[in-house]
Design brief:
The chain is an all-alpha fold. It has 8 helices and no strands. Helix 2 (about 30-50) runs antiparallel to helix 4 (about 65-75), helix 5 (about 95-120) packs antiparallel against helix 7 and helix 5 packs across helix 8. The structure holds protoporphyrin IX containing FE.
């Protein structure tokens, strides 16, 4: 996990520059557009990652799915009847469990930044964890514990011989996200 963080630190900084929902100049429409982009990524991505996992790992993944939070936010903020967000067509090329875990690391880790974003956005446009901020507030106070649990589970689920696959998948996931948000 330490190697994953080091290998993706630069990509995190680049992505943060493109995707910062707490930017001072962000409008309400811009915020909704960002949520729609996250939905468009996570919708096909959750399906892809679930198809590479099985047993206990799949159970944990299902428990940690974040798409329902985005759906709740869009229901709260998007005008009724608006067309659903389009799916990202260029997901990272992932087939094996180790790669799926490397990619999962990226989305799971984003719950850490979500806490900061939630504190900054609270109250803007009437946002609260129950109204439009469900996705970013994520696990709330349980975030540090959930992050430690995920790290432990990931470390014991990937053999050292597969670290390279996991790292490559994490880097590919950051790239896919940046291309998707840039488009
Ligand atoms: C799609 C967007 C983003 C993704 C995929 C993402 C991903 C990640 C990942 C994987 C980690 C875990 C790093 C580790 O291994 O410890 C992380 C941590 C973090 N992220 Fe992000 N992030 C995103 C956006 C942001 C934004 C916009 C901010 C700030 C406004 C941010 C702030 C942070 C912070 C503060 C941490 C915790 C760093 C630490 O405690 O060491 N992130 N993020």
């Amino acid at each position: 996990m330490t190697a994953l963080k080091a290998a993706t630190a630069q990509q995190h900084r680049l992505l943060e520059a493109v995707v910062d929902p707490s930017r001072a100049d962000l409008t309400r429409d811009g915020y909704v557009a960002l949520l729609r982009k996250f939905h468009g990524f996570l919708h096909p991505w959750e399906r892809l990652i679930a198809s590479c996992l099985s047993g206990r790992l799949l159970e944990i993944f299902n428990y940690r799915r974040k798409l329902p939070w985005l759906a709740a936010d869009l229901q709260a903020l998007d005008p009724p009847g608006r067309t659903p967000p389009p799916d990202c067509p260029n997901l990272p090329p992932i087939q094996r469990t180790a790669a799926a875990i490397g990619s999962w690391y990226v989305i799971e880790g984003s719950t850490l930044g979500g806490q900061l974003i939630t504190r900054r956005l609270l109250g803007r446009w009437g946002l609260s964890p129950e109204h439009g901020l469900r996705y970013f507030s994520g696990y709330g106070n349980a975030t540090p514990t959930n992050w430690t649990d995920f790290r432990n589970r990931a470390e014991t689920s990937v053999d050292a011989a597969e670290y390279q696959d996991a790292t490559a998948a994490a880097c590919d996931t950051f790239d896919s996200l940046r291309n998707w948000f840039d488009a």
